[in-house]
Amino acid sequence: MRACFGGKTQQLISRVFRHPVHPSAAVRWRVAQSRLLCSPPAGESKPSPSMLQHLTFKIKATGPITVAEYMREVLTNPVTGYYVRNNMLGPDGDFITSPEISQIFGELLGVWIVSEWMGAGRPKHLQLVELGPGKGSLASDILRVFSQLKSVLDGASVSLHLVEVSPALSRVQAQTLTGGNSVEASSEDEPVYRRGETSAGLPVFWYRRLEDVPAGFSIFIAHEFFDALPIHKFQRTQKGWREIMVDIDPEKQNRLRFVVYPSPTPASTALVQPDERRAHVEVCAEGGGPGAAAVPEDRGRRRRRAHRRLRTRWNEDGHVQSERRTHFKYSLLFKGLLGFKGHRLHDVLSSPGSADLTADVDFSFLRKMVGGGAACLGPVTQRMFLKNMGIDSRMQVLLRNCSDVSTRQQLISSYDMLTNPEKMGERFLFFSLLHHSRLAKPKRTEGLKLEKKSPAPLPVAGFTELSFS
Question: Which residues of the chain have pLDDT under 50?
Fold first, then answer.
């Protein structure tokens, strides 16, 4: 499908493209191995006694635990969780994300957000909400676009809301976004545990839970967020669906193993869809918890309660086992839980708490959970989305204005990492939830100024082919 963004999105992109590369972008142009390009580790590090002992004691006391509980403990345990105590992003961490590779990624998302804000009728208040904001690089690039399009956003009250469970990362984000201009809450019971202000005077708030974000017109961003949420893992057997659990290896007491639970569990009974045909299924849907199903449900409740429109952009991993050359695309294949440490594949049960865990995202399940509450667009590949948003035109501007050979090579390498089908281009996907009114045809004008034809709704940028004309 080809859409022509004659006077709106095209103008936004053109205005942003006139600006040169950000001064600090030299760091971001560094091309490091992503979580997609991993090789088996040469050796295993020693187990983390605190987390391993904690899990061992828990299993001995209560029996095997679900994969969801294992992931929750390993990643977000308030004392020894991987996300809580580690700075895992970047070339020196365990994986690198698109915003760390190139500022163009965040620039184009900033244009997308402004375009959707305009398509929503230019609300007076705009809350940008990011779930799992990493180092704050993506939000920083988006806010820079906001400053470049200040005249377009003139009159709108813009605020940034970050949902982050890691105190260590929140400090990194605060330094990136506010410099030293942020303060922590005096009590742990306060919904906003940190607040600050950017150099441009834009307020920034940090929350541990999505439900603490105040009601209002919001655009949500979840970049590499759902793939790290706790999942339940199921296997089809001759006796029906059974849940995969984590247990102690009887032959090695300091090791864990996966086991198939012999009888049905509440999760295997309630979470597997009746029409499911696959042999192995992963579902992130724990009621009241941070599961992927709970997130759109919570947004639905907030939308109905506040009677506001919802604009959401989700970008998630596709199939990440690059050695199989099997791409996610539209087939919605889900092959398992993976661990990443030092940009290499890592045994998910080895040294718990020392490595990142990630699972493929079931977009079909997200669609089912949303039901008729929102319009779903995608998933489309990252390559398609960025090209639809004009990444090629942006690259031409940057290369035309760049004479340094090294910088030019970095620009080309980062572009290749983001768009190459064998790298991030087709293994990362974009998925969007929009209020149905966003895609509805505007009402025809009545009276003397009656139009012959009802105008078509503004196309959603990124999900249709962009044409400069």
Answer: 1-6, 23-45, 47-48, 89-95, 286-297, 299-336, 338-344, 467-469
Looking at this protein, which amino acid is placed at residue 72?
R
Please list, in sequence order, all residues whose beta carbon lies within 8 angstroms of the beta carbon of residue 42, skipping any fewer than 6 positions away: none
Nearest to residue 282, comparing CAs of 272, 274, 290?
272
Q: 12, 394 in Cβ contact below 8 A?
A: no
Distance of CA 362 to the CA centre of its chain: 13
Task: Report CA 312 to chain centroid distance, whole Å.
Answer: 11
| Residue 445 vs residues 27, 94, 439: alpha-carbon distances, Å | 52, 56, 18
User: Rounded to an integer, what distance in angstroms lies between the CA atom of residue 70 and that of residue 231?
Assistant: 9
Domain coordinates in residue numbering, the chain:
2-147+210-233+280-467
**307-362, pLDDT tens digit by residue?**
333 333 444 433 322 222 222 221 222 234 544 444 345 567 877 777 767 777 77
How many other CB atoms are there within 10 angstroms of residue 435's CB atom? 17
* Residue (of 75, 78, 80) closest to 94 by Cα position: 75
> What's the pTM?
0.72
* CATH number listed for the domain at residues 2-147+210-233+280-467: 3.40.50.12710
In the chain, the amino acid numbered 56 is T
Tell me: the pLDDT tens digits for 220-266?
999 878 777 888 999 999 999 999 999 998 888 788 999 999 999 99
Number of other CB atoms surrounding residue 80 within 10 Å: 19
